[in-house]
Design brief:
mainly alpha
């Protein structure tokens, strides 16, 4: 096999889970709120994952396009803080469930 190491199913699953988490953190960072730990985890992952770097660049372009499309005047749109907190709790609960299932 030309000196290439065969990737086990477990290794492959771990890589996929790492990429899932990285893409989640990329999107979360674009909204402006990731922790220092999450930042370090993401930066570490991005150093070795070309696919997630491509995803990050594409995601940035898509998000900028969508913002211009739906808000051409650049008016700052905000959700109610209480609504955001409730929504964040729901997202965190679902994410925790999803990560625990894997």
């Amino acid at each position: 096999m030309d000196g290439m190491k065969k990737v086990s199913d477990q290794d492959m699953a771990e890589m996929v889970n790492n990429c899932k988490k990285a893409t989640f953190l990329i999107e979360k960072r674009q909204t402006g709120n990731i922790t220092l730990k999450e930042t370090l985890e993401l930066e570490f992952h991005l150093k070795g994952c070309e696919m997630c770097n491509i995803f990050m660049k594409q995601s940035l372009i898509i998000n900028q396009f969508v913002k211009k499309l739906f808000n051409p005047r650049g008016i700052e749109l905000k959700l109610d803080d209480q609504f955001k907190e409730q929504l964040q709790k729901q997202v965190d609960t679902k994410l925790d469930q999803s990560l625990n299932e894997d």
